[in-house]
Specification:
3 strands; mainly alpha; 318 residues
């Protein structure tokens, strides 16, 4: 990887969410609690989908990967945010900032593909239930996940490599709590027209491609559900999609608005970044555990098994 000329500026300073020390302490406690809950929630989903045989289906295979991506995304952003909230010098090296921007872009991009794959899975399950097992084979599910990671990585690599060749001079303050490519362009004294064009084009192709697949899938799903004569049948079919549709709305909405709105460091921009990178990874496990009977049943079985093993250990030691 060839580095650009970063000799003028060697580090960036984050403005963060607040300059008030008292508010920073409160924010530290808040985001630490959110981060710990996010780790526990997503690990719980990953463990239960891997260990419970009732959940060894394509839907939960994708869900386990979604939880892993959420775990990665929040871990790329929140630990550095927490460090800056308690540090006097809220800085990051240029190379460290670009590295963080790469992982944020890569993981978020991969999550878009996984969410669209989950939409296709729901479309297949509801529109072609008799062929579902054949259409959603283990090979296809694994292939969709690998392609999602590859395309997310490639998209991030292209944009980040171009950003490595930018010169950053004079202005070194990032009006944000993390490094994202749109925030870095405004700090460069190089010509960013090519970088901006590539970013917008890749985001449009990336976003519109996955969103079109989601839209097509749910158009067919809604059409199929409405054709079901029984009310209970319609309700059951819709309940299998409601969790995914909620997750898609939260992530797509905030991520799209963040990357397509002008970079200004406005409170709205920070809110959108917090929503897709911090809040969404927290609520996804809640959405899939509270609104999904199969996950709730699996969690109950896992808890009962754990309590039984604990009682047996105490009995044995007694």
């Amino acid at each position: 990887m060839v580095l650009g000329n970063h000799s003028t500026i060697t580090e960036f300073i984050f403005l963060g969410l607040s300059a008030d020390p008292h508010i920073q302490v409160l924010l530290f406690v808040l985001f630490l609690a959110i981060y710990l809950l996010t780790i526990m929630g997503n690990l719980m989903i990953m463990i239960v989908t891997m260990t419970d045989t009732h959940l060894h289906t394509p839907m939960y295979f994708f869900l386990s990967h979604l939880s892993f991506l959420d775990l990665c995304l929040t871990s790329v952003i929140v630990p550095k945010m927490l460090e800056n909230l308690v540090s006097h010098k809220k800085s990051v090296s240029v190379e460290g900032c670009l590295t963080q921007a790469f992982f944020v872009f890569s993981i978020a991009g991969t999550e878009l593909f996984v969410l669209s794959a989950m939409a296709y899975d729901r479309y297949t399950a509801i529109c072609y239930p008799l062929l579902y097992g054949q259409l959603m084979s283990k090979q296809l599910c694994g292939g969709l996940v690998w392609v999602s990671w590859a395309l997310g990585f490639l998209d991030a690599l292209i944009n980040t490599l171009m950003a490595w060749n930018l010169d950053f001079c004079e202005v070194q303050v990032i009006p944000h709590f993390s490094c994202e490519l749109p925030s870095l362009f405004s700090l460069s004294c190089s010509d960013i027209s090519t970088n901006f064009t590539v970013l917008v084009c890749s985001a449009i192709i990336h976003a519109s491609g996955t969103l079109l697949l989601v839209f097509f899938s749910y158009t067919r799903i809604v059409s199929t559900i409405l054709s079901i004569s029984s009310t209970s049948g319609r309700s059951k079919a819709f309940s299998t999609c409601s969790s995914h549709l909620t997750a898609v709305s939260f992530f797509y909405g905030s991520a799209f608005l963040r990357y397509f709105m002008p970079t200004s460091g406005s409170p709205l921009e920070l809110i959108f970044s917090i929503q897709y990178s911090v809040v969404t990874p927290l609520i996804n496990p809640l959405i899939y555990s509270l609104k999904n009977k199969e996950v709730k049943s699996a969690l109950k079985r896992m808890l009962q098994k754990g309590l039984k093993q604990l009682r047996e250990q105490r009995t044995g030691s007694g």
